[in-house]
Amino acid sequence: KAHGRGRHKFFAPSMDEPIRAREAAERDLRAAIEAGDQLSVAYQPQYSAITGEIVGAEALVRWQHPERGQMPPAAFIPIAEETGLIEPLGEWVMAEACKAAKDWPIQTISINVSPVQLRNPHFGYRAIGIISDAGIDPARVELEITETALIDSATQFAVNLRLLRAFGIRIALDDFGTGYSSFSHLREFEVDRVKIDRTFVDKISVDAGGSALIRAIIDLARSTGLQTTAEGVETDEQKSFLQDIGCNELQGFFMAYPMPASEIGKLLEGKSSP
Ligand code: C2E
Ligand code: CA
Ligand code: CA
Ligand code: CA
């Protein structure tokens, strides 16, 4: 970087590199989706704040790249969204998660849905098809959507949402509090739950204002009849505070990391259905 002015052109060839890396990532991801064996789903338990029992699990996609190893979703979900690969990928995750959770003694399986998927007018029907094929009660399936989806594609989203809800599927607003005018969206679109973003959980006890803010979010959500889940719970203190202020469910590394299906299956052995 310490080169002088006028040498700019020498950097031109390397400017292609991010593009080539992206093309390679797209090609590899496409192959991974077709082959299936590099992809898996990890499940992070969700706990009742009252009983401490596991009541749900969030499905999180994992990609073991043959050369580059474990790829974080943050590195490939955006590529999948830009290329449209998020549709087959998201549908694969949904099918896997519904089949895996069908016989688990938990109420809910939570599945992330990209705004790109929600923009497709056929999404609602396809999701219903996948859930029916898996044989799981649709009332046990919760789709996690972000506020971006509501803003980007409000009309199409509303059509899909109505259909999904008519089928009994539940909707959670993910990363709640990070977007714009979140509470107005809660009124506009019927959702069942808000997942309070971990940036708010991080602020608990850092300062009184941080604790007051999360308390206000939970009070407001409750007064609207919504369930609340706090994500990113990392300390005992955060857990206790969230229990005290009436948050319904807790999720985070303090209780459990995302784990393979076989592991959560073992963890749930002997548990009775909620
Ligand atoms: P998200 O939906 O907000 O998922 C929660 C993320 O927070 C997960 O990261 C999880 O491992 C992490 N997490 C859980 N507890 C804690 C904690 O206590 N502390 C911290 N620091 N992190 C915690 P992950 O698995 O890397 O996923 C990142 C994001 O990628 C997800 O954020 C979601 O937006 C996206 N994603 C993952 N799987 C899928 C998928 O199947 N479809 C779509 N569309 N997006 C997905
Ligand atoms: Ca999520
Ligand atoms: Ca989230
Ligand atoms: Ca997120």
Automatic annotation (TrEMBL):
What name does this protein carry?
Answer: EAL domain-containing protein
Q: Which residues of the full protein are shown?
A: 466 to 739 of 754
From what organism does this protein derive?
Answer: Sphingosinicella rhizophila
**How far does the signal peptide extend, from start to end residue?**
none
Give the EAL domain ranges: 22-272
